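Q: I'm a student working through a structural biology exercise. My instructor gave each of us a protein and asked us to get a predicted structure, then write a short paragraph describing it. Mine is Popeye domain-containing protein 1. I'm not confident about reading structure output yet, so if you can add a plain explanation after the tokens, that would really help. Here is the sequence I was given:
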Amino acid sequence: MNYTESSPLIESPAIGFTPKLESIIPVPSNETTCENWREIHHLVFHVANIFFTIGLVIPTTLHLHMILLRGMLTIGCTLYIVWATLYRCALDIMIWNSVFLGVNILHLSYLLYKKRPVKIEKELSGIYRRLFEPLRVPPDLFRRLTGQFCMIQTLKKGQTYAAEDKTSVDDRLSILLKGKMKVSYRGHFLHNIYPCAFIDSPEFRSTQMHKGEKFQVTIIADDNCRFLCWSRERLTYFLESEPFLYEIFRYLIGKDITNKLYSLNDPTLNDKKAKKLEHQLSLCTQISMLEMRNSIASSSDSDDGLHQFLRGTSSMSSLHVPSPHQRGSAKMKPIEEGVEDDNEVFEPVSPNALKVHQLP
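A: Happy to help. First, here is the predicted structure for Popeye domain-containing protein 1. I'll explain a few features afterward.
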């Protein structure tokens, strides 16, 4: 016979232990386990979060990404303040979103200020569109370049910009804005200079490391001319602080020297033909500025050097044979020859474009 009745002594510890367990184990309540959800917040709260979401999913590749992001955050913070003030009556939520709103408004104002349209003077707009804009120079950077240490000067027809063996090349660098100039050596015409071209680019390149040099040619205004003139020393300091602009000038000056060399081979070159040279390589790539300056300036008592150079450029082949009659100038330092690498800053050149064609 099985007797299963429990004794009171055995039940007593369990009875005494149960209240202690109940006090240790927390009893779930509606407030902590969210069994009874509260009512949905006002529509303003949800619209604010929609604006936050839109701002965060805007792709960074978009041009106005940061402006749109700050705009969405500003609208979202504003709606949060409205919701916290009118429908939630939560002072802390209103204060924090007011702080966020102020930060976003300041940042948005700064971004809009940077994107403001930069007005370029009408007289300089041609240079910007033709020379600097295709190379992706921002308008504000171009304005800094032309607004602090340069000036626009005027020359009347027949006035001299530079006289050979007299004018120093250390003072300035200029771009012709309007008119036409002619370059000559001892009365012999060499080539013309047209608008949007550097006036003294060969001298700027050849004397970058030397001081006290003089012009080896004479440059005279063939028409009423206006040109943009930089202080060479201040321009050099500015370009040292702007590596991007330094490469831009390096490219533009090299291309301008190339066009001038081409005009030496083709005296009939006019302004329209000069514009077409910007995307072409010509026979002048075979001739160095060193040969031109040294050939012209080497003869101090006769004109043989000039005639020899002009004859040689029209019949020069791709393999240049140095003439024993040519010697370095004692006044002008030789120009350092270097290949302009357009791939460093600009679009790659196709292999077919690198072929040099001889003139008939």
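A: Here are two points you could use in your paragraph. The chain has a mean pLDDT of 74. The two ends are 134 Å apart (CA to CA). It's a good idea to check both against the output above yourself.
Q: Great, thank you!
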